[in-house]
Amino acid sequence: MEEENVILSFKGIITPDLLTSVLHLMEAKMETMDETPRTRKRVFSILVECLQNIYHHLDDNPTEADFEAHNRSAVVLISKVKNQFLIRTGNCINIPKIMELKERLDTINAMDKDGLREMYQTSLSEAAMSPKATAGLGMIDIARKSGNKLDYEFLEIDSNMGFFCLNILID
Amino acid sequence: MSLTIVHIKPTETTPEVKFNPSTGKFEIKGRSITENASEFYNPLIDWVKSYIENPAGSTTVDVYFDYLNTSSSKSLMHLFNILGTIPGKEVSINWLHKKDDEAMKEAGEDFNTIVNLPFNIVGTDSN
Fold first, then answer.
1. Which CATH class name applies to A4-170?
2. How far apart are the CA of B25 and the nearest CA of chain A, in angstroms?
């Protein structure tokens, strides 16, 4: 088994205050680690986008059933495997939304570095025109900054709800 | 009707902002990683919408970020687009970044590609 050191893990309801606390904690932890400023910045930036993706995703029309079923909870695990940082997130997702998200992730994963840059720039200029059309910018940014493919998996909880796992390995 | 000077102090997740309507000197500095960027930037965007009706002779925007999330980038893009509608476009943007900060340099290059305004990317030695 590969050696894996967990740096930070969290499971629970995601709120804006919690996002700020997790970021604060991670930044403080990394300051005590022997990492280059460049690595620290990249891990931190990617974590920002990962957490905000979860937060905004969860914020997307929650139903009362979601609250009751604790479907607004998420898991975040940040660890170091050998010399690489690994950020893993997991959150519930409504089954009908899975297809769209999967397509977006596959589109991003099919791009090389230049393709991702172009895609990011196009999405950013479109996003400024219509704030609604913003989906995906965070994921593109994560893919660009990590230098790796977005490794994901969807698990089925029941006929309405699935669980989305995202694993980001940072070069 | 004159606009008042904007001066917002930085927080852990939002940058310092100084907009001076009479000199046309705008500064945004620090980290912008708030999960709800539009809540922070929309009042500034409204201010800029009023500003462009009666802008200073020239407008210079100095932007100097440590961290910038995608949500803030969208708002920033919106703000640049509005400034770009000033007649005669006496507007320039100085995108400052620490010399060794590749991420912020790259972010500047992204904006440079899509923002239709004079855009300078400047690497600096210190804060």
1. alpha beta
2. 23
